[in-house]
Hints:
Layout: H1 3-7, E1 12-18, E2 33-38, E3 42-48, E4 53-59, E5 64-69, E6 74-79, E7 88-94, E8 100-105, E9 111-116, E10 121-127, E11 133-141, E12 152-154, E13 157-162, E14 167-172, E15 181-186, E16 193-197, E17 205-210, E18 215-222, E19 225-233, E20 244-250, E21 256-262, E22 266-271, E23 279-285, E24 291-298, E25 301-306, E26 311-316, E27 319-324, E28 328-335
Antiparallel strand pairs: 1-2, 1-28, 2-3, 4-5, 5-6, 6-7, 8-9, 9-10, 10-11, 12-13, 13-14, 14-15, 16-17, 17-18, 18-19, 20-21, 21-22, 22-23, 24-25, 25-26, 26-27
Amino acid sequence: MRLREKLVGMTMALIIGGYTRRDDLPAGAPRGLGIYEWDGTTRLAAQLDIDNPTWFDWDARRRVLYVSQSNATTLTAVAIPEGPESARILDTVDTGAEHYVHLAVAPTGDAVVAACFGEGRVVTVNLADDGRFDGVRGVESFDGPSDPHQISFGPGGFAVPDRSRGQIHRFSWEAGEAPRLLGSDEMPAGAGPRHMARPPHRDDVAYLAGEWGNSLVVLRVEEGAFVPVSELSTLPGDWPHGGDVSAIFVDAEGARVYVSNRGHDSLAVFDIADPLRPRLERFIDAGGATPRYAGELAPGVLAVAPMDAHAIDVLAGGERMRIPFGAPACAALVRL
């Protein structure tokens, strides 16, 4: 199926965010937060001047996009009440903690939880019914070097990979309550936990991207704890230059896990027919340098963001469509 045929008929918006504090952003390229009309073609419908919007999460009920901002102390709420052109900044909150790299809307819908990379904090912010921020609910701070890099909700709470501590922190979650730290699980030495992914319809296994180890760490989930089972290289055996992994995701079918390699500039694709024994299947060319982001926009439609190529590539059915964007770091396809 051709790419445009696969996407036509989808009444969606493609949202892209990227770094704005760079001297090499191409003149005239979209930057900040871009909202595209998406129906098999792409048209930039709105561009919002937000500082370093490098991750976001969509709240479909409120029709609000919650944005974390790297190297900034703020989170931003963007309302998209109708089509892409209706996008506007609804609210911001300044918590004083700098370098938010990831956030997630809680499944109860009453708060967002954000990872503050470099300051070792996990910050929970209340949400009002209208989508605005409504005060800080809780802050968990870790002593010493600590780099919380992701908020990953799952059964009973959420997990936070911490690169410098080499751990995954586990937190409880209940509506209206501040999260409690339940424990911290040790990961393989030198792995550098960055992001994790969970297969659909399975609570007993998860996968971790080891940024420093260029690795995929297979995790067995035992009574809520993450237990490393194996660590697999994400690089070809003859690759001499090393690099750093970044993004990780499992496809909608639960058939494969993908990990992006910065340096090798590829996606490593693992078959997970046996979930605890992934098998390296192939590599996909990232289309340029430094693929910070990769994900599945819709079943069978992949996106990869070679950040230093200043573009997002959308892949489906053996075809590739390129969308220019300044230093992209995240993307999502949302139904409006």
